[in-house]
Amino acid sequence: MIIRNDLLGGSQNLRQQLAKEIDSGRYAAALETLTKIVEQKGQTPEDLYYGAYAYFMLGDYERAASFVNNTLSYAPQHVKSRILLARICIVEDRTEDALKVLNGLLAPQEVLTAEEEEEIRDLTEYYGNVRREDIRSNYPHIARFLGLNGENMGAKLPQAPVAVPSSVTVLSQEDAGEVTAGEVAAKIQEINERPVSLERKVKMLQKFAGGYYVAGEITAAELMLKAALRLDAEDDESLKGMALVTKAKGDPEKALKFAVAMSYTDFTLLTLLKAR
User: Fold this and answer.
1) CA–CA separation, 255 vs 57, rounded Å?
2) Please, where are the H alpha helices in the chain?
3) Where exactly are the structural domains of the chain?
4) Cα maximum dimension of the chain
């Protein structure tokens, strides 16, 4: 479909409304606004990306993927859509597909903003840590971006601890080394001081918590999750993570308290916590 320039101007007010709704987290409203823009045949690739992002944030990954594909059919090099595609692959346990997308984004000819680079770093650092040789051999642009030439990287995870990709190789505690409380506190302070939204800070703390969790650094994971709960005491993923780390520390009764504090009942989690 060719998008006419005269129709783009007629949708400008709706486009501004769409951007505001996305920025404020009103994703259902944003999708309604996008529908109006499409009805006027005034959609741009950026509008379609917003639709994909809204569906992603609402947890509808199938529709999010469909909108990403539509966006890329109009603008094959649209960076934010390609990053979102990698995120969708990660939450669907398609790790290799995600790494291929991210490796392509980091090719020398690509031009990325500082924000886009930071987002890609959030998604790739964990894999650079636990799959170092594989990344160096098969994903050279990611390896170059992360500087995998001998420096020791920290364990970091691109998603919540309960969503670790099944293909990821888990570090043993011996491999990971001991993390001091001071190092964890410094990282928490660094995240809290970043000029990003509270929601983003919570997600970043959860990522680090997950990395520590799979590396066997349970206390470090607990500290990260407690910091996340100080920012948002009702976040379900943080509560779920606390349930898991508390169970790992040998206190199943306390772990159950975190689980029942969630906004929904996760019977799989409850079964796991009640297992002896």
Assistant:
1) 27
2) 5-10, 12-23, 27-39, 45-57, 61-74, 79-91, 95-105, 114-130, 132-138, 140-146, 173-176, 181-192, 198-214, 218-231, 236-248, 252-260, 267-274
3) 157-276
4) 66
Q: What is the pLDDT of residues 90-130, one digit of tens each?
A: 878 888 999 999 999 999 888 899 889 988 988 888 788 77
Long-range (24+ apart) CB contacts under 8 A made by 144-148 are: 144/106, 145/106, 145/117, 145/120, 145/121, 146/121
CATH architecture of 157-276: Alpha Horseshoe (1.25)
The answer to whether 229 and 235 have CB atoms below 8 angstroms apart is yes
| pLDDT for 172 | 34
Q: Which residue has the higher pLDDT, 126 or 172?
A: 126
What is the pLDDT averaged over residues 217-244?
89
Radius of gyration of the chain (CA): 20
pLDDT-derived band at 230, boundaries 50, 70, 90:
confident
Cα dihedral sign, 11-17-23-29: negative
Taking Cα atoms as reference points, which of 177, 167, 174 lies closest to residue 134? 167
